[in-house]
Design goal:
452 residues; alpha/beta; Aspartate Aminotransferase, domain 1; Aspartate Aminotransferase, domain 2; 2 domains; 4-stranded mixed sheet; 15 helices; 41% helix; 16% strand; globular; binds pyridoxal-5'-phosphate
Length: 452
């Protein structure tokens, strides 16, 4: 018999879990209250309040695939800094390389020898010959859109409902019943994203064609699979059809691999032989130093070069003093040469497959009719909702109360899920016992919620 939990049961359990959280985390609470005196909302960044507890955990340290909080509690980490620490916390090889660079000059306004190697390694992995750097993936995406406008002479961008590409104004958009709407997050931006952006559903190639036919789209930007509204996979041929449609209408086809780098050393692009005009990388790419990179196809690099030749390289400046500096490039070099290797990805895929199998077994045992999707080292699941093919359905299907309970139940028993989603990110150090702990807890929670 397929079933869903009762709202009242979710709420009753949630109330208990909130109490447990408060009892178990006195030091986190004290730090949160102290921070309230001088930090807006008591946190360095507002969204840090969005974790499942009534106040955020304060972290003390992290190593491999585990985090320890300031109350001395240990957690299996399936959040991994939301991809920023995907390859493991506190790595000695990365720390050593960064320390060496810091000791010999982090920022000199001059390129270092590492830069050429990093460019070559990225070109080799992603099949795009020319690279530039940014401070964050948000920043890189903003630069990609700017270059697309510069070379095409057009203003607008086309994005997919449910996307997230960072906090740039063009991407603060959603679609309500097929009508573009500004996201509530756009508060304070001077431009309404509806003036810059068209939005359609993922996997809807007819809608893509229709918007492109308007003739004012400079760039179609997407993740190869949406990862910010559950995981929505592309239907076979969809990405290639978007690429071809974009090119027919002189628009740049931009892939954001900030999250999908979890698919392999060359991301989803290399794994599925996609041929984008640009690729964006960020989060883990420099081993913890804020840095990002974006690659350009030969054709696009030539067009950008022509625009730059008109203005001069120092004038068409994209990025600032701390963009692509020696420390960031050293971080990328150690990550590319020693960490983000085939061997590391092999370990991550094995662990991610074990989670996928574990969750599937738990859902079957508990007669749940939901879904589990593995995208490389990323496993997304929902016991009660089937897999989605677009952002509209994915967003509409989210049950905030159940999700909060799931996260808090796990957290109170030593397992951190990726926040804002029911997602496990798997590191090379994730152990079999960590995976079994997660599956066991999911089983316990479903058993507790199942009406007798
Ligand atoms: C697909 C994608 N692109 C870009 C970003 C922005 O990354 P950052 O916040 O590091 O700039 C995110 C953040 O989650 C993302 O998921």
């Amino acid at each position: 018999m397929v079933w869903k939990p009762r709202e009242a049961d979710i709420q009753a359990l949630l109330d208990q879990e909130i109490q447990t959280f408060e009892t178990d985390h006195p030091r986190s609470r004290a730090l949160f209250e102290a921070a309230g005196a001088h930090l807006l909302n008591g946190v360095p960044l507002n969204w840090m309040r969005r974790w499942a507890g009534p106040f955020p955990l304060y972290a003390d340290r992290a190593s491999g695939a585990h985090v320890t909080d300031v109350d001395g509690l240990d957690y299996v980490d399936f959040c991994m800094g939301d991809t920023a620490s995907l390859f493991g916390h506190g790595r000695a090889d990365v720390a050593q390389a960064l320390k060496a660079r810091l000791a010999t000059g982090a920022s000199m306004m001059l390129p270092t020898a590492d830069a050429a190697d990093v460019g070559a390694s990225l070109a080799d992995r992603f099949g795009l010959p020319t690279w530039q750097f940014a401070v964050s993936a948000t920043d890189a995406n903003r630069f990609v859109l700017r270059l697309a406008r510069a070379v095409t002479g057009k203003r607008k961008v086309l994005l997919f409902n449910g996307c997230y590409h960072g906090n740039l104004v063009e991407a603060l958009i959603t679609s309500k019943n097929g009508v573009a709407a500004a996201s509530p997050e756009m508060v304070g931006h001077e431009v309404d994203p509806r003036e810059t952006t068209e939005v359609v559903e993922f996997n809807d190639i007819e809608a893509v064609e229709r918007v492109l036919a308007g003739g004012d789209i400079a760039c179609v930007m997407t993740e190869p699979a949406l990862t910010n509204c559950r995981v929505v996979l592309p239907e076979p041929g969809f990405l290639e059809a978007v690429r071809q449609a974009a090119h027919r209408h002189d628009a740049i086809f931009a892939l954001d691999e900030t999250h999908t780098i979890c698919c392999g050393p060359g991301g989803y692009t290399a794994l599925h032989d996609i041929k984008p005009d640009t690729v964006t990388l960020g989060k883990p790419i420099a081993g913890g130093v804020p840095a990002a990179a974006y690659g350009l196809s030969a054709d696009l690099a030539e067009r950008v070069g022509a625009v730059m030749a008109e203005t001069g390289p120092g004038i068409f400046a994209i990025g600032g003093t701390l963009t692509g500096h020696a420390l960031a490039i050293a971080g990328m070099r150690v990550m590319l040469d020693h960490v983000m290797t085939e061997k590391t990805f092999g370990q991550m895929m094995e662990a991610a497959e074990a989670i996928e199998t574990g969750v599937n077994d738990v859902l079957a045992k508990n007669e749940c009719d939901g879904h589990v999707i593995r995208l490389g080292a990323r496993v997304c699941y929902d016991p009660f909702v089937k897999a989605m093919t677009n952002g509209r359905h994915a967003l509409a299907s989210i049950d905030e109360a159940f999700d909060r309970l799931l996260h808090l139940y796990m957290l109170n028993r030593g397992v951190l899920l990726t926040p804002f989603q029911n997602m496990c990110l798997v590191a090379p150090q994730t152990a079999r016992s960590d995976i079994d702990r997660h599956s066991g807890l999911l089983d316990d929670l479903l058993t507790a919620l199942r009406p007798s």
